[in-house]
Design goal:
- The chain has 15 helices and 24 strands.
- The chain is an alpha/beta fold.
- It folds into 3 domains: 231 residues, Metallo-beta-lactamase, Chain A; 95 residues, Oxidized Rhodanese, domain 1 (3-Layer(aba) Sandwich), CATH 3.40.250; 94 residues, Oxidized Rhodanese, domain 1, CATH 3.40.250.
- The strands form 5 sheets. It has a 6-stranded mixed β-sheet with strand order 1-2-3-4-5-6, with helices on one face. A 6-stranded mixed β-sheet has the order 7-8-9-10-13-14.
- The N and C termini lie far apart (53 Å).
Amino acid sequence: MWLERIVSEGLAHHSYFLCDGREAIVIDPRRDVAVYLEQARRLNVCICAVLETHRHEDFILGSRELAERTGAPVWHADAHLPYAYGQAAEDGQTWSLGDFRLRALSTPGHTPGSMSYVLELASDQAWMVFTGDTLFADEVGRVDFSGPELARSLADQLYTSITTRLLPLGDGVLVWPAHGAGSMCGGAIADRLWTTIGLERALNPRLHLSREEFVENLARVLPHPPYIRRVEAWNLGLAPFWNDVASPRLLKPAEFAQLSETAQVVDTRAMLAFAAAHVPGALAIETGRLSQMAGWFLDPERPILLVCPGDPTSPITALRRLGFDQVVGYMEGVDEWVWAGYPVQKVGLVSAAELRQELASSPSMALLDVRMPDEFAAGAIPNALNVPLISIPQRLAELPRSGLTLYCGSGPRSMLAASLLQRAGWSEVRILLGGFAAWHND
């Protein structure tokens, strides 16, 4: 048996490639499917089936393209939805894989039709289970993506799925979820790559609650980025294939300037480089944070221009996995832009030591904390206003137009917040270098 977990960084998405003998099965493939084709070639195996645990909300699935390129049938969950491809997996259905078999196990909750897949030995003994977004390390899946009216019912179903379907598989069974730490699909997923039913029974705080406590605790509607509705629709079979999307062009400053009149500009360079000089109106989102932030602030209907430190492959890949296919061009840094005489914007910087001195003489200085409310409650700079980063576009009227200092945990979120304010017309913004961590340690 060969098992490989394929991690999509940023999204914290985990897909799986299993093979035994000459046959392989892929579970929850990402949109860029070359990694699975290369693995099959390297191992000299044939992909014989593609399985989905649910209709994913946070990234575009690659099931349809993988099926097109291999001839493998696709089996999806959430059978109540109008898929344009594949067949619906049924509870108890099995797929042979060499000396093993995979068995579908209905585990509704995260979505109404979520499906887990149990890998069994020839003796019918469960060895591992692929749980999708039903059960994570130290966490369970969110239940609010289907809307507030269904949250309590889905939370109740999730409790039943975990306690009556997954836990009885046995403490020694390995658990392979669809996400790791950092995913928006679970509130506090542990940074633990390896887990078992027994570890989750012992360590997962959700599993120590009564049914009533579990439902009450989980059935809360949390913020989610607007792009997920488009992803949900595309994952029914509407997304273009990866290789059918046009590649963006390297642009000269004049063409970049012309296109930027209608396009969204995203600068993926390090935040200090952005602070020094950037294209006016650009959003500061470093490449490693695109997967978490782009869906909150980018319009999927408008073209995108990138400013990146070099090869644009990584930021383009991160955006396309979310369904942002409209990257039309890029510049490698802003040197040519500056040399061509085009205007730039800057973001001011202040150290923790300097800010303490300023606050000693001007305690009413305007401070904006862009962290989430729970972070703010755990400790903040005195007299700071808390407006979470994701709420800034809706709360601009509350913010001072000048003399504003922003901070977050360490810096990147406050730099993005500063760029959002600049795009909205703020001319004087600066950030605290090192964020609250620097303030706390100063």
